[in-house]
Structures are given as C-alpha cells and as structure tokens.
Amino acid sequence: METPDLKKVGLKATLPRLRILQLLEHNRQRHFTAEEVYKALLETGEDVGLATVYRVLTQFEAAGLVVRHHFEGGLSVFELNEGYHHDHLVCTKCGKIVEFIDEIIEQRQLAIAQEKGFEIVEHCLYIYGICLECR
Amino acid sequence: METPDLKKVGLKATLPRLRILQLLEHNRQRHFTAEEVYKALLETGEDVGLATVYRVLTQFEAAGLVVRHHFEGGLSVFELNEGYHHDHLVCTKCGKIVEFIDEIIEQRQLAIAQEKGFEIVEHCLYIYGICLECR
DNA sequence: ATGTATGCAAAACATTTGCACCTGG
DNA sequence: CCAGGTGCAAATGTTTTGCATACAT
Fold first, then answer.
1. Contacts for B34-41: CB closer than 8 Å, 24+ residues apart
2. How far apart are CA A82 and CA A59, in angstroms?
3. Are strands A119-130 and A66-70 parallel, antiparallel or unpaired?
4. Tens digit of each residue's pLDDT, chain B (135 residues)
C-alpha cells in the first residue's frame, strides 16, 4: 500500500522512506516532530540519519503526502495528509492535539479572503488551550 | 507616552526598550522579525545588539505589549499589541499582511473549544494566499 | 550500471545565555 | 550607588547541506 503511494509521487521506494511513511500511517500518534520520527525509527532498530528524516519529510510535504505545521515554540510538526483539511486544538500543558473542522469557519475564511482580494493557498487555525485532563 | 507604558509593566525605561517601542508604534509596517527590528535600529544609528532585541521583544511579549506570531518558515514575527485580537492574511509572494477579525469565526472557535473540553488560552488563524497585486 | 538516496559531519540559521561593563532611578 | 540592563561572543537547538558511499531500478 505504501510503495504505490511513493511511486505515484515520483519517489523511489527506499527503506527510510517506507519506514517513515509506515510510522506516520500506522500509529495512534498522528503528529510528529522530525526528532520524534528519528527516535521512533531508531527504537525499532532502523539505522537512519536525522538529516534523512528531514529530507524525506520535506519531500513528502512537497509531494503532498504530509502537512507541516509550525506550532508555538517554532517547532515543526508533521502529520500524514489524509486528504481532508482540518484545524487543531493544542493543549499547552500536555501537548495533546485534537483535530476539528468547522464548515462555518471555512466558509467565513473564503469570504474574507475574497473580500480582501486574496486567492487562498492554504490556511491554518491553531487554538491553544488547556484540555479537560490538565485542569 | 511610551515611558509610562514601560513603567506600567515594571520595566525600566532604557534606551533600547524605548527605541524598539517607538519603532513598533510609529511605523507604517506593523509586523517585524527580530532581525528587522535590529537592522532598523542600526540604520537610525542606534547601537543595539541583536540579543537585546530578542530580550526586549520577549519581555514585551511577557508584559503583553507585543504579540509574537510563528509564521510559515518558522520565523517569529512581532507586532504591537493594540489590545484587540485579530487574525492575519499573509501574501505568500510579497509578504503583505492584512489583518482582519470575524466575529462569526471567533464565536465558532469558542463553541468548538468548549465542545472539546478546552479552555482557550489563545488562538491564531493564518490564511496564506496571493494578494491582488501579485496575481 | 548509474543516477539517486543515504549517513555522517559540518554549516547555516534563529534564538538564548554567560559575563564583564554600563546606566537609569 | 547598585540592581538591573546591555553588548558581545559563545552556546543552543533545529534544520540544511556537502560529500563519499550504498542502493533501487
């Protein structure tokens, strides 16, 4: 299943790429920093370099396979692009991330961009807060 | 006008702080990276260090005088906190920034956070697009 | 085979920090 | 005067890049 995805976007099906894609696809955790991906692979005995993780994630982003987020603190977080856009609620205490999508907000964004003469390329909405468990 | 602001938040009215505040207050440009603030001050003949710019901006942020944004590319951008929250449209070609506020979006955010059990600390919405002039 | 991908180490950035010196109140 | 602020240089943390080697097709 993963290999065709890679070929489809013009990337050779190399081991590091397959491993990274697998990790992103088959994991309860959906959001990873490059460092987290790197450590997770090392733990499973894969011998990959951090530089390769960055290179692969960047290629995946360019290919539309993953989405890169810039959360507070300047850290990049990557997640698999499941094809549907969504926004994020981030707990500032435990780091928990909840995804959501709101059609009303989406529509308002389109209307605002149009009103201001912008052609939307992308948009992201981050709500930072404290989740139930952390209060 | 600026001095009282600084005193009010418990910061000594030192030259670098005054200069940085002035720059943020009296300028057509409203959004600056630390580097831009630094260069702007050097150009006006001020002898400040980049480290001080970062320190002062961070203090201003803690004091609520400025807001720090994490735009795409991982760059931090600072703007004066005029007291009212607003969101941003950013042109991915020329970097132009347009501010906006939409009550419907604000309300939806509150509703979503409540629904998911989050107590909102802050939130930011960035719409990246291409502005009229760049098309 | 052969062009591309990788790992490693070094470079490039953005940001922070340690420390001796300076300055505002 | 003296606590706090500053400039400089060095440290940090993240991401990128150069290059010789290894791999997929």
1. B34/B76, B34/B78, B37/B78, B41/B16
2. 16
3. unpaired
4. 566 689 999 999 999 999 999 999 999 999 999 999 999 999 999 999 999 999 999 999 999 999 999 988 778 999 999 888 999 999 988 889 999 999 999 999 999 999 999 999 999 999 999 999 998
Write out the residues of chain A at the interface with chain B, using a CB-CB cutoff of 8 A.
70-74, 76, 89, 91-92, 98, 100, 102, 104-105, 108-109, 112-113, 116-132, 135
Strand A76-80 and strand A119-130: pairing? unpaired
Sign of CA dihedral A117, A119, A101, A80: negative
Burial of A131 (0-12, 13-18, 19+ CB in 10 A): buried
